[in-house]
Design brief:
- The protein has 19 helices and two strands.
- The protein is mostly helical and 423 residues long.
- The chain has a two-stranded parallel sheet.
Length: 423
C-alpha cells in the first residue's frame, strides 16, 4: 500500500515539474501583481477609531486596538521592499516567506474592520509554497551573484494545486448545500441584483444581463459555478487538468468582473502559477523582450532595493500607485489596474489552457492511428506531391496521414469506403 502511495506521489510531483524559466516568470508575475494591485494599503486603517477594532482569529488578537499610523507605514514599507526583493530575486526564498508574514500582519488589521478578502489568503498561500520551488534559479540576483541555490522542486506547485483545490471546494460545497442547485432559485441572479442595487455597483453588462438573461440561463450559471468550484480538487491530480479548469474559471471571473465590478485578481494570479511561461514567451513575439528585462532587473543590489522600497512607499503615500496614474493618463480612466492584472493574465491563462488541451488531443491521435484523417493523392501527379509536401511542412503535430492512390494503403482505403479503385 505504501508503494502505491509513493508511486502516486512521484507521479503527481512529476506532473507539476516545469522549467526554471517558467518558475522565475511566476515569481515576477506575483511581485508585479502585488505592486500594481495591493499597494498602497494598510495605512487607511489608522483613520478609524479603535472602537471599530474587532480582530479575527490570528495575530490581531494580540492587540487591544488599532496600531498607530507610523507602524502601518512601517508595515507598508516592509511589504514594498520585500516585494521588490522578490521581483529581482534578491534572497528570493527568504523575501517570499518574510513577505507572506508581513502581508498576514497587515491583512489582520484590515480584516478587523470588515470582510476578509479571500484573494489575499490565496496570495499568501502562493508565497508560502512557491518560495520553495526554486523560482530564484533564473533571472535573479541570487543566481547572478553565485549564491548556493536549492534545486528546482515540483512539490511546491503540487501543494499549491492541492490547497487551491481545497479552497475552491470549500467555496463550492456551501453553495451546493445552500440551495444553488435548487431549480426554484437563481442565486447568481440574486447576487447580481444585490451588487447592482444595494452595493451600488452598476455596470452596463450587469444591466444587460438582468434585462435579457432568462431564468434557465441563471439556473445554468448556478450549476456551472458550483460544478466548476468543486472540480478544482479532483483536477489537482494533474497540472494539465488543473490548467484546463483554471482556463475555464478565468472566463467566469472575467464575467463577474464585467457584470459586478468584482475582480478576483488573487485567483487569477494563483492560476497563472500553473502556466508554463517559458512556452508562452517562446510563442508570443510581444513577450520576446521579457527575459532581457528580467536579466536587467537581476543586476540590482541589496542597498538599491532598500532605497527603492522607501522611495516607492513615499510615492504611493504622496500621490498614488504610479501604475494607476499611468493608466489614467494613457486611457483617460477607461483602463484600471484591475483590468491590467486580472484580464491580461486571464487571457494568457485561457490561451495556455486551450493550447494544452489541443496538444493532449493531438497526442491522443498520435497514439490512435485511426483517429488521424487520411488524405489520398495521385502518386504520379507532381502538383499533388507538392501539395502533400506543403501540408507536411505545416502539420507540426503530424495529424494528417497520406497515402498514394496507387499504394496498398490507398487501395485498401478505397475498398473500405466502397469507392472505385480505378484512378
Amino acid at each position: 500500500m505504501s508503494d502505491g502511495r509513493g508511486a502516486l506521489t512521484r507521479w503527481i510531483f512529476e506532473e507539476y515539474r516545469i522549467s526554471e524559466q517558467s518558475l522565475a516568470m511566476s515569481r515576477v508575475h506575483v511581485a508585479f501583481a502585488l505592486l500594481v494591485m495591493v499597494y498602497p494599503r494598510y495605512v487607511w486603517v489608522a483613520g478609524f477609531p479603535s472602537s471599530f477594532f474587532a480582530p479575527t482569529p490570528g495575530l490581531g488578537m494580540f492587540f487591544t486596538g488599532l496600531p498607530p499610523r507610523w507602524l502601518l507605514w512601517l508595515i507598508l514599507t516592509a511589504a514594498i521592499t520585500l516585494t521588490l526583493a522578490l521581483l529581482v530575486g534578491w534572497h528570493a526564498r527568504a523575501a517570499g516567506l518574510a513577505l507572506a508574514a508581513v502581508l498576514l500582519v497587515g491583512n489582520t488589521f484590515e480584516y478587523s474592520l470588515g470582510k476578509i478578502n479571500h484573494d489575499d489568503l490565496l496570495l499568501v498561500v502562493v508565497l508560502l509554497t512557491m518560495s520553495f520551488s526554486g523560482w530564484e534559479r533564473r533571472y535573479s540576483a541570487d543566481a547572478r551573484r553565485g549564491a548556493r541555490l536549492a534545486p528546482a522542486a515540483a512539490w511546491p506547485l503540487a501543494m499549491l494545486a492541492l490547497l487551491a483545490g481545497f479552497a475552491m471546494f470549500s467555496a463550492g460545497l456551501p453553495k451546493a448545500m445552500a440551495g444553488w442547485l435548487d431549480p426554484a432559485t437563481q442565486s447568481a441572479q440574486a447576487h447580481l441584483l444585490r451588487n447592482y442595487h444595494v452595493l451600488e455597483r452598476p455596470t452596463w453588462l450587469g444591466r444587460l444581463a438582468l434585462d435579457h438573461v432568462p431564468a434557465v440561463g441563471w439556473e445554468a450559471l448556478d450549476w456551472t459555478t458550483v460544478g466548476l468550484e468543486m472540480s478544482f480538487l479532483p483536477a489537482a491530480l494533474s497540472r494539465r487538468a488543473m490548467l484546463t479548469v483554471c482556463g475555464i474559471a478565468v472566463f467566469l471571473h472575467a464575467a463577474i468582473y464585467l457584470t459586478m465590478d468584482i475582480a478576483f485578481w488573487g485567483n487569477v494570479v494563483t492560476y497563472a502559477m500553473f502556466v508554463d511561461w517559458s512556452r508562452v514567451v517562446a510563442r508570443w513575439r510581444l513577450l520576446a523582450a521579457l527575459p532581457g528585462w528580467l536579466e536587467v532587473l537581476s543586476r540590482a543590489k541589496g542597498w538599491a532595493i532598500l532605497v527603492a522600497g522607501v522611495a516607492l512607499t513615499m510615492v504611493y503615500g504622496l500621490i498614488d500607485n504610479p501604475v494607476v496614474l499611468i493608466l489614467r493618463a494613457v486611457s483617460q480612466g477607461r483602463v484600471t489596474r484591475h483590468s491590467l492584472v486580472m484580464l491580461v493574465p486571464a487571457v494568457l491563462v485561457a490561451l495556455a489552457a486551450g493550447r494544452s488541451l489541443v496538444e493532449r488531443i493531438a497526442r491522443a491521435r498520435a497514439r490512435d492511428p485511426s483517429a488521424h484523417p487520411l488524405l489520398l493523392f495521385d502518386g504520379v501527379c507532381g502538383l499533388c506531391s507538392r501539395a502533400v509536401d506543403f501540408v507536411l511542412a505545416h502539420d507540426r503535430r503530424a495529424v494528417v496521414r497520406f497515402a498514394a492512390l496507387q499504394s496498398t494503403a490507398g487501395q485498401a482505403a478505397l475498398a473500405r469506403h466502397g469507392l472505385p479503385s480505378d484512378y
